[in-house]
Design brief:
heterodimer, A: 242 residues, alpha+beta, Arc Repressor Mutant, subunit A, Beta-Lactamase, six-stranded antiparallel sheet, two-stranded antiparallel sheet, 10 helices, 10 strands, B: 507 residues, seven-stranded mixed sheet, 17 helices, 23 strands
């Protein structure tokens, strides 16, 4: 059924699916409902026809080798660090955490340690929020917990509040985290997309709140720089500019 | 002091760098803080007419160069009026001969990796040895350098040598070819000239003894100019922007890494890898297989010299592994594959594909994978592919320490392979010194931009440029000494097994 739905440029009605599959209508309808419930199939609200769902794209095909992502993002990560004077990290999802695949030092020649390979909590980092916001199933999984691990007094530990935060992230196209992982530190992240528009990683700047923030939010010019960096890397990966 | 108005005007403008490399041509636009503003690149065809021969089409390269300059301006939303200057960094030694009147090349460019001059080079060294010309030009006899390539080319078809002697043909490395086409001037920069085997390192002029011995008529040679000076304004499609610098790519990287003082060194990891050490205003002759070369010459200031360790095959080994072996789909995946295993499984891969460069200079060597057993997997092969780059660097660093009498205390690394964390860590491990990457990994382009910007006053001096250098990553040695020593011993044994492979009756 999935092959049928992904093989057509158009969409298929229940009758068409039943005809193509040669199965009883009740059986086909049952399968379709199941696939819709896990997000592999979507129903067009106007025509009532079925098409493949966004969640299907997250299966395997969304995978971009972290080493490849680092190599392709090298120049523009440097650009972002030079532009903002803050450290830059690139992250991907790995076993429900954020895997740091690239790290550019804050360009002030101060002693810093390379954090490539480190795993960060998804709900307490800007990169994690960006990745979670576009990965509903992992977000749902977190939502099943009573409370999420706390790192500071500002960490969002209530799954309901996290859901609201992720909605905001999806709407605005970027995420921030202010003292939610480490006291006195903040970060700001935006999504990196590939040519299919699928999110393959997140890029973030992080640093002390007195440099990064203006009130309770990162400076707007820093947010703009992070988003521009993310857009440029995405464009290099073949994403259509948005 | 400059007025405020001038500052604003200049800081809104940019320098473009053309990096005409072995695999592709690129253009990067930089702002006054030395930050990348935009970038465009285009690969060109690698022509392999026979084993060991490598050619490029100079016209294709010229078209690509003009295209990437426009591409970089477009993607940055800029036009030619936003540029104060263009600087050129180029693949070195690659040799073009063209007709002065028509501008048509008489042959494809013969690329630096090409080994067709092996016989000629051996004849030149027959009675006197490989170091016959080292005192004059700082280089050993090797297929790498341009002079013998020109001579081969002039003998490749009837009448060419006579036409060259009559002044009908012009020779140039890629910088000359581009500047001639962009400005109409037949010049080369002193760093590129120092790679021809035809220039005297003391006088910085063509050397008649070398010209006569190698067989290159002086009349076809470009005028040698400083690396940083306005050569002319670009005509036609590049809209009158001054072409204000040219450097060989590795010298450009040395400059881009702001290694302006004696004792500063960098290594650039690309197709091949090149470690250069600034030796100040005097050429240091190598007793350990390194090259003596010109580092740069800024306007009328005295030239700066460098010691160079050139490694022919590093990044290109990864490309070979991708394209010819097919175990990986993209170059960065070599790290993913290599991380599926803990170590190299006991194998060592010496990629002497076109002989060995520094510090061995053995044209008769060919590649080996030593230590193969039934235990070895593709993961181990990937490890050995990466480790080859690090061990080759170690050999060059040892030679550099011996020649200069100064121990390297940290390595400034740049180039595309610095994206490979496993390699950078292994490099720190086998060198036993920290490896540092600067915030602009594109040091080749940055160096060309710096030299061009200095020539037109976009930057006042080299100290200003130094302030733009920042550490972007650092890898510290973690390997224990005995593992390092054992690995190096095995590597050296593997190198021995590459030697004396090519016989006289081989094609």
């Amino acid at each position: 059924m999935l092959r049928l739905l992904s093989g057509r440029s158009g969409r298929l009605s229940l009758a068409e699916l039943t005809g193509e599959l040669g199965l009883p209508k009740g059986t086909v309808y049952g399968i379709v409902r199941t696939l819709i419930s896990v997000g592999f199939v979507e129903q067009d609200p106007e025509s009532g026809k079925y098409r493949t769902g966004a969640a299907l794209l997250h299966l395997g095909s969304s995978y971009l080798d972290g080493n490849e992502l680092r190599a392709r993002a090298l120049n523009w990560s440097d650009w972002l660090a030079a532009r903002t004077n803050e450290s830059v990290r690139l992250g991907t999802l790995h076993d429900g955490q954020v895997l740091v695949v690239h790290h550019v030092f804050r360009p002030d020649n101060s002693p810093q340690v390379l954090e490539v390979g480190a795993l960060l909590p998804v709900h307490a980092t800007a990169m994690g929020k960006v990745l979670l916001a576009h990965h509903p199933y992992l977000a749902d999984e977190l939502g099943n917990n009573d409370a999420l691990p706390r790192f500071t007094t500002s960490t969002i530990t209530d799954p309901g509040l996290l859901t609201l935060e992720l909605e905001r992230v999806r709407e605005q196209g970027w995420a921030s985290e202010v003292q939610e992982l480490i006291d006195g530190e903040a970060s700001c992240a935006a999504p990196i997309r590939d040519r299919r528009g699928i999110i393959v990683g997140a890029i973030a700047i992080s640093g002390p709140i007195d440099r990064l923030c203006e009130g309770s939010e990162p400076h707007s010019k820093l947010i703009a720089a992070v988003r521009e960096g993310a857009r440029t890397i995405s464009r290099d990966l073949g994403a259509v500019p948005w | 002091m400059e007025t405020c108005e001038e500052r604003t005007a200049l800081s809104d403008r940019y320098v473009a760098a053309i990096d005409q490399g072995t695999a592709s041509s690129r253009c990067l636009v930089f702002d006054q803080q030395g930050r990348i503003v935009s970038l465009s690149q285009k690969e060109h065809e690698q022509i392999f007419p026979r084993p060991g021969w490598v050619e490029h089409d100079p016209q294709e390269i010229l078209r690509n160069v003009v295209q990437v300059v426009r591409g970089a301006l477009d993607s940055g939303g800029l036009d030619f009026r936003d540029l104060v200057a263009i600087g050129i960094a180029n693949q070195r030694e690659t040799t073009v001969v063209w007709d002065r009147r028509t501008g048509q090349p008489v042959h494809n460019a013969i690329v630096w990796q090409d080994t067709r001059t092996d016989g000629l080079v051996r004849r030149l060294g027959a009675e006197h040895g490989q170091d016959r010309f080292r005192d004059r030009c700082g280089l050993p006899l090797a297929t790498y350098f341009s002079g013998p390539k020109v001579s081969w080319l002039l003998d490749s078809a009837p009448g060419l040598r006579r036409r060259a002697e009559d002044g009908e043909l012009l020779f140039g490395t890629m910088d000359s070819w581009l500047v001639w086409n962009l400005t109409g001037r037949h010049v080369t920069d002193v760093t590129n000239a120092s790679r021809t085997m035809l220039m005297n390192l003391e006088t910085l002029d063509w050397d008649d003894t070398l010209l006569a011995a190698i067989g290159v008529p002086r009349v076809m040679l470009p005028t040698i100019q400083p690396s940083s000076r306005i050569y002319g304004e670009a005509v036609g499609s590049l809209g009158g922007v001054p072409i204000a610098a040219a450097l060989g790519d590795q010298q450009a990287a040395l400059f881009g890494q702001t290694c302006f003082s004696a004792g500063e060194a960098k290594c650039t990891y690309g197709t091949g890898s090149f470690l250069l050490l600034n030796t100040g205003n005097r050429p240091v002759r190598s007793g350990h297989g390194l090259l003596t070369t010109v580092g740069c010459k800024i306007g009328d200031e005295p030239a700066t010299y460098a010691l160079e360790g050139s490694i022919a095959v590093t990044g290109s080994l990864v490309q070979w592994f991708r394209d010819k072996v097919g175990l990986i789909g993209s170059a960065p995946e070599v790290e993913t594959l290599a991380r599926t295993v803990e170590d190299n499984g006991g194998i060592y891969f010496v990629p002497a594909f076109s002989g060995l460069f520094a510090p061995h200079w053995r044209g008769d060597a060919r590649g080996v994978i030593a230590g193969l057993t039934g235990y070895v997997t593709k993961g181990h092969l990937a490890r050995a592919v990466l480790e080859a780059t690090a061990w080759q660097t170690r050999e060059v660093v040892d030679a550099m320490n011996a020649d200069s009498g100064i121990e390297l205390t940290s390595l400034k690394a740049d180039g595309g392979m610095t994206a490979n964390n496993l390699l950078m860590q292994f490099l720190a491990d086998v060198l036993a010194v920290p490896v540092v990457r600067p915030i602009v990994a594109e040091t080749v382009s940055l160096g060309a931009a710096y030299a061009a910007g200095l020539a037109v006053g976009f930057w006042p001096d080299t100290e200003t440029l130094r302030a733009n250098w920042h550490k972007a990553a650092e890898w510290l040695p973690q390997m224990d000494g005995s593992a390092r020593d054992k690995g190096y011993r095995k590597w050296k044994k593997a190198v021995q097994r590459t030697l004396d492979w090519v016989d006289d009756d081989d094609d």
